[in-house]
Write a sequence for this structure.
């Protein structure tokens, strides 16, 4: 059975984003064995939005899966899919943005992306490793990097552009100078980190919020069990005969955001799609709204007295 995932228009060009997407980051990064088969199964189930990034090292197997899906007729055309990738920090230099996207497109065997995101508001030396040294941390020239992102749209290489991990303050600064405003801010969001202030800001500014780590990022370098072990969520799931994951995904969906979930387990991939034919009650939503809030992704590797961000508070502009 293939599930039908709702979509929502985003940005000024009317492009619609499927509200449940499939993440392809597997930790440790580069551990992409069997990803092609997993993506093919996801397409069979009804997933149409696939989220990757240069740093995930999952673009090539995702591209192979897309080509195979088209060959097998699992989707009628490329336009039936919504593909997102991201610019890594060592390419966050004005002159490196377009070449980086062209490289991602080669890996994906595609002519364009539906959405290209700036992965973090920071810049590394081009030769830096994923986990940088202090001397690799460079000032982030937001305006010039964003000009490179805008060029990607002008060249037809990306339908929409956006950002990840931007605070309200950074988004406001970008919106003040951008000729093409960011369509999306993809951020950590789940019942334990609900991003109320950011969501309200984005709604006011016409920026769509996309949620990563909707289950707390368990299995990542920075994730935790806080979401899956939350007693409030456990009680709601038990009472409703749902999984905790289903409650989390349904909650996020009801907030009007798109969600990037990641499970390579076939049974859970299917379970996670069963969130559209029921809703949480006002009482349940109220209980979730009172869950104590803790940010999971702290970004410790990019904080340094010698870098542009001296503290977690400075990076998130006090929104922690």
């Amino acid at each position: 059975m293939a599930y039908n995932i709702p979509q929502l228009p985003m940005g000024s060009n009317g492009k619609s984003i499927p509200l449940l997407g499939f993440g392809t980051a597997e930790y440790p990064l580069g551990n992409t064995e069997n990803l092609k088969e997993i993506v093919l199964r996801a397409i069979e189930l009804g997933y149409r939005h696939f989220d990757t990034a240069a740093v995930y090292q999952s673009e090539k197997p995702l591209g192979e899966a897309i080509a195979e899906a088209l060959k097998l007729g699992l989707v009628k055309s490329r336009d039936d899919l919504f593909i997102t990738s991201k610019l890594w920090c060592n390419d966050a230099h004005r002159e490196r943005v377009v070449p980086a996207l062209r490289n991602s497109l080669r890996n994906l065997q595609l002519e364009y992306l539906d959405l290209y995101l700036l992965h973090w508001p920071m810049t590394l030396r081009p030769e830096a490793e994923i986990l940088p040294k202090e001397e690799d941390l460079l000032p982030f020239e937001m305006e010039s990097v964003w000009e490179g992102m805008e060029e990607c749209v002008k060249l037809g290489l990306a339908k929409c552009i956006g950002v990840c991990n931007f605070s309200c303050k950074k988004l406001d600064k970008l919106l003040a100078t951008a000729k093409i405003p960011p369509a999306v801010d993809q951020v950590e969001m789940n019942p334990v980190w609900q991003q109320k202030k950011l969501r309200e800001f984005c709604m006011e500014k016409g920026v769509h919020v996309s949620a990563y780590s909707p289950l707390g990022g368990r299995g990542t370098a920075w994730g935790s069990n806080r979401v899956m072990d939350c007693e409030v969520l456990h009680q709601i799931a038990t009472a409703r005969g749902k999984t905790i994951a289903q409650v989390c995904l349904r909650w996020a969906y009801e907030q009007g955001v798109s969600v990037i979930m990641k499970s390579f387990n076939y049974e859970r991939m299917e379970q996670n799609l069963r969130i559209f034919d029921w809703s949480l009650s006002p009482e349940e939503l109220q209980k979730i709204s009172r869950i104590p809030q803790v940010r999971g992704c702290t970004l410790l590797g990019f904080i340094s007295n010698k870098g542009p961000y001296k503290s977690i508070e400075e990076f998130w502009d006090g929104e922690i």
About this structure: The longest strand covers residues 158-164.
